[in-house]
TrEMBL record:
Region (Disordered), start-end ranges: 97-126
Composition bias type Basic residues, residue spans: 106-119
Highest taxon above the source species: Bacteria
Protein name: Uncharacterized protein
Length: 126
């Protein structure tokens, strides 16, 4: 279950763990996939509610994403919508991606400052 999502997490070097929860009072089964940058601190999670069809296939009812510190979870009907959201918001759940983004910003700022300094030095020579 969630094969594409797991492959995406692996490609982003994000640790995850999975577990099945079978509530007694409702017919839906629950699959929980916890993930995060640090394998010891998996504070984000996907909660997949699913049932089985009469042929035995899994039918996903809904997928809920709860990111760390998020007040309102996001709900998706299928895995494709979930992947589209994750690709857009990768920096939110991957500390590594966020750090890389910050480093790129710093480099860009340093290059801008260097260009500005060179321009000022050229103007001072004239």
């Amino acid at each position: 279950m969630l094969r594409k999502t797991k492959n995406f997490l692996k490609s982003q070097n994000i640790a995850y763990s999975k577990e099945h929860v079978n509530p007694l009072m409702v017919p839906e089964k629950v699959y929980v996939l916890k993930f995060g940058e640090d394998p010891n601190d998996l504070n984000n999670r996907f909660i997949v509610e699913h049932t089985y069809t009469w042929t035995g296939r899994i039918k996903i009812t809904k997928i809920t994403v709860r990111l760390h510190g998020q007040k309102k979870p996001h709900e998706f009907a299928n895995e494709t919508e979930l992947l589209r959201y994750l690709k857009k918001k990768a920096y939110r759940y991957s500390g590594k991606a966020m750090r890389e983004r910050e480093e790129r910003k710093k480099l860009k700022k340093m290059r801008r400052m260097e260009k500005k300094r060179l321009k000022e030095a050229k103007a001072a020579q004239k």
